[in-house]
Design goal:
By secondary structure, this protein is an all-alpha fold. It has one domain. The chain has 13 helices and no strands.
């Protein structure tokens, strides 16, 4: 079992770097999606990250060996690739019709779904604190959608379909998460990421339109570059945070990601009003967002207590 280094301040710093990068990511992606389709944006992000990891691991003699995986391991690789590529594309499809803040908040259900699945797949414990966190999260979602709750429950509008698409993105992310967790028994996290990124790139290639990059203006081009680097740097910081701090505390810190998105949207809308549209939410919705974050943090820390 992995034991953290105990350098909690470094772990906290890296976790916050990850939260900030993930928090501002949908804001950048939203602007890129004005020109490029979700499949092509995902193709560029995964290709760049996969190639960088391929070169880095290759120069260090750390390329993964496939033979030890066996048939079962190969099936897990296929599941992980299918899960992650579906997550990336579905997330962007939802983001194309929803605001960055709403998209980031809805995707917060992914860790809870992974937790519930882990109860059955890995026989993990479920504590009272985690159950309380789940209730707080559900209450938070109810308050967050107070302005459009009737629309969500009674019609298949573009907004409703956008929310359902992001929910589906969270579901397929769980498939990826469960498969990746098993692959870590054979490979390092960077080896797993490299294989999955490049596998996803090959899968998307027939449907990608790389020439769309020529249609981007200067701002959108550099935002695409930033999104590609974000994919690699954020996950690298996340992996390093886990090396120095307990996973439950890292997860609790990452629960702040939606709040960072809301703050980022507000700042970007004030600085670049011609490019970024502010969130159209009332105070009750913002209160709900805080409850979603609190519920996520309580569940993450409750997982720690359950294992103590």
């Amino acid at each position: 079992m992995h034991v953290s280094s105990g350098r909690w301040l470094l772990g906290l710093s890296l976790a916050m770097v990850t939260a900030v990068l993930w928090g501002i990511l949908p804001i950048k992606l939203k602007l890129v999606l004005e020109v490029m389709d979700p499949v092509t944006v995902t193709w560029y992000r995964l290709l760049s990250s996969g190639l960088i990891l391929l070169v880095w691991l290759g120069t260090r003699g750390g390329l993964p060996a496939f033979r030890p995986l066996g048939r079962r391991g190969g099936a897990l690789v296929v599941l992980a690739i299918a899960g992650l590529v579906s997550n990336y594309v579905l997330y962007l499809m939802g983001l194309s019709v929803l605001s960055p803040g709403t998209t980031q908040l809805v995707i917060q259900i992914a860790p809870f779904l992974l937790l519930i699945c882990s109860l059955f797949v890995f026989r993990e414990a479920f504590s009272i604190a985690q159950f309380l966190g789940l209730l707080v999260l559900l209450l938070g979602f109810g308050l967050f959608f107070n302005q459009r709750l009737g629309e969500l429950l009674t019609s298949l509008s573009e907004y409703t379909l956008g929310v359902l698409t992001v929910v589906l993105a969270a579901v397929v992310w769980v498939i990826y998460g469960l498969a990746q967790k098993q692959l870590l028994n054979k490979w390092t996290s960077f080896q797993v990421m490299m294989v999955i990124y490049l596998g996803c790139t090959l899968l998307l290639t027939p449907w990608a339109s790389p020439a769309q990059v020529l249609e981007l203006d200067t701002l959108q081009f550099w935002l695409l570059v930033a999104c590609c680097l974000n994919t690699l740097v954020a996950y690298g910081a996340f992996a390093e945070a886990l090396a120095h701090w307990e996973a439950s505390r890292v997860s609790a810190a990452l629960a702040l990601t939606p709040l960072i998105t809301f703050v980022g949207v507000a700042l970007a809308a004030s600085w670049w009003p011609a490019h970024v549209i502010p969130e159209q939410l009332n105070l009750l919705a913002y209160g709900g967002a805080l409850l979603v974050v609190a519920g996520s943090a309580v569940a993450a820390l409750g997982h720690r207590r359950a294992k103590a």
